[in-house]
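Q: Protein A?
A:
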Amino acid sequence: MALLPGELYYFGTSLHKWLCAPFGTGLMYVRKPLIEKTWPIFPNDKPLSPDIRKFEALGTRSFAPEQAIGQAIDFHNAIGGKRKQERLHYLKLYWCDAIAKNPRVKFHISMKPEYSCALGTFSIDGMDVGDIATKLFSGYGIHTVSIKWENVNAVRVTPHVYTTTKDLDRFIDAVEKIAAS
């Protein structure tokens, strides 16, 4: 993503997903000329200050997760964004290609890396996606997320750089057994 001059960017609380940072951590980037003009959600005594630290007035909190963000960014930079993207897409294609052979399996994603990279969603004809996710977890110890929202009715699978093909082989085997039941 290219950062545009004069824009405010907020990188949500999902740093744990892509940077392996602790849960609940987030990041906000504000271009220097906009700091003074941007009002913090929880203002201190100088909400129009040009000091970026005005956004840190959050009260008592644990500093350990915040300190770990830097380590997570270092880890990401050591791998490199391009290599990380390639690895994540490879892992998605690995499990998708394997279960695609089952005629009951339907995908709800693109296989193109620019559209879904690591994220994959699937369903099994005739089965509730909540039941699929429950069976994967209770029967095989595999955590997935069932999504039933608007036009999405699928199980979300999100491997990460540390996921091994052996882990995915267990997942593939579990999906095949569930689809056969």
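Q: Protein B?
A:
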Amino acid sequence: MTALKRVGDALLGLIYPRKAVCMGCGTHVGFARDWLCETCRENLASRWVGAARPPEGGCFDAAAYGYYYGGPASGLVRRLKYQGVARLSELMARRMADAYALIEPTGADALVPVPMHKKRLRQRGFNHAERLAEEVGAQIDLPVLNAVERVRNTRQQARLPAGERRTNLDGAFALAGDVRGRRIVLVDDVCTTGATANACARLLREGGAEAVYLLCFAVAGEKDKGGN
């Protein structure tokens, strides 16, 4: 962990004390365990997914998700992604590792995070998908490979109708590493229509990846459309 990252985490600890503000619902009441009030813990547990069908498009060998998007799952995602509470990645990654175990054995040899454009990276300070991949990798003993880069700063997927999400990503990604013969786990926070995930997976396949799996903290259900 770099000195800058330690300072950043310390500052976030003052703004979002682990035992004061629930990251699921925003309740400002103290509670016994880190990050989530008991109501959100129960709600989150009821939304568990695990191994599930990959997004349509035929690019993945298998997929695993922590939870259905919505409720406390969406609260965690928003606070990691938009409010910069980077330490949430540790909790979220534990649940992702649990979900990944349900699609083993994959023979995977690397985790590849969905990339963020440099302009957006400067605005947010870190790539949430890369942070999740690093935490998951530490738990399941797999390296992180930044094999895909975002070369075009597209409009945010969450703000677009489903029909426009794939065309919005045309030419948005490029290979940035050698994936020939490798078995890859693509990592992101949320899968909604699967447009972003499939765009990255197609590129990995074209680059010679032997297998591609998808691992996300959350997946949208029929009533929860708000991600990639």
